[in-house]
Amino acid sequence: MARVVEKAGTVCPVSRSLDVVGDRWSMLVLRELYMGAARFEEIQIQTEATPQMLATRLKSLEADGMIERQPYSEKPLRYEYRLTEKGRAFYPVIHALRAWGETWCKEKHEDIAVRFVHRKCGHDVGLANVCPHCGEHVERKDLESTLSSQFANERAERRAAFKRK
To answer: Per its UniProt record, what Gene3D superfamilies does this chain match (predicted)?
Structure first.
């Protein structure tokens, strides 16, 4: 906590929060972790960050307690990145950005990029954080996601372009 206070120089919680996640790359890294990515290469492919930019953001998010590294290979030593409790608690912010972006930042003819179905009752929750069918508050762990064909193709094209490099 002292680290955040030193960075922000204020008691304002918005300013302190922005010190942790207030740039495009950090938000995109978190988006990928919420979507199930865990390894450096997949996060890099989908964020289109340079290796240096991604490494810097991952280190920063780890230092701020949002993520943790877990080894998945000993030789060579390689890590996966996992959300911590603090990182998982940030999901409502990403969800709000998604809902706002779906409402205000796209063409009328575009489909919703990611649909979420409440696992418990099987109904689409739309852009809400409360299931309109059963009335339960939902968190990311409660939802099954399906990408629109356009978003799925976009992500597949990024993977293919990365492999061609």
So the answer is: Winged helix-like DNA-binding domain superfamily/Winged helix DNA-binding domain
